[in-house]
């Protein structure tokens, strides 16, 4: 049985659906979103930090693949000699106090799955990762902790208490903006016209979505399989087991994960969870001898796993030419 979240997402991305009955509420939500943005920007923008802040977010709920993009941008910036900080709300985590500086061994239950994945993907000496629901406080804390040249905020496009020097909106190229209605009748946190006011629109997938003017695009490429229990690595074209596999994903768009496995010639049996849902070892145990593949975002939820048939599909973002240069030029670091 589909959860309420999955039922809503399915309805939002259908051409005709019962959610259209919620259209009057969507109009009220849209009006309130516009009014909220106007007043919060008026009082909170224009108060810069000691380093430029780049917000990477989206206007639609659900996954758009922005975390791999953020990780790749951080690695590119670090390769150019810059020290970066990442600030995240830490959705799904429950720390006893904030701000929280994330370490490689911080539990996902404390900091959230995405911040831990980001922390483990970046070199310790050149990156600081901080979790705080109050992102402006988190940014100030990160800048006190280390001499950062640039701060990337994971999500938070609608967190207008936070001053930002550059806004990047990420759009899922496979799903677009759904029915283009605001919550609760559609998936949008703000009207689609908001994309015209951000600095860069970046599409995950092929550019050219109808009605969306994009500035760049990127793609998520399968990089390797990693055995969760041992760390053993397999090339994506060297899979020695049956092509029939169990695929588990607690991400915004589990079908994208299944489609990636299909592109590798596999026949996944998909078990999709709500985004950020907790996974336990019992979820990895099936009454057959098939291999189990999970996402890197879900892998950080497990401390130890003794099953030798559980693998992590690690992906990397491939950026369109000039995106990093455009970001650096926009914040005067080019």
Structure notes:
It is globular, with a radius of gyration of 20 Å. The protein has helices spanning 4-12, 23-44, 66-79, 108-111, 113-121, 135-145, 254-263, 296-299, 323-330, and strands at residues 53-57, 84-88, 100-101, 127-131, 150-154, 166-172, 200-204, 216-227, 233-234, 244-249, 267-272, 291-295, 310-319. The chain has 334 residues and is α/β, with parallel strands linked by helices. It contains nine helices and 13 strands. It starts with a helix and ends with a helix. Strand 10, helix 7 (254-263) and strand 11 form a beta-alpha-beta unit. The chain folds into two domains: 4-218 and 319-330, P-loop containing nucleotide triphosphate hydrolases (Rossmann fold); 221-316, no CATH class.
Brief rundown of the structure:
The chain is an alpha/beta fold and 334 residues long. The protein contains nine helices and 13 strands. The protein folds into two domains: 4-218 and 319-330, Rossmann fold, CATH 3.40.50.300; 221-316, no CATH class.
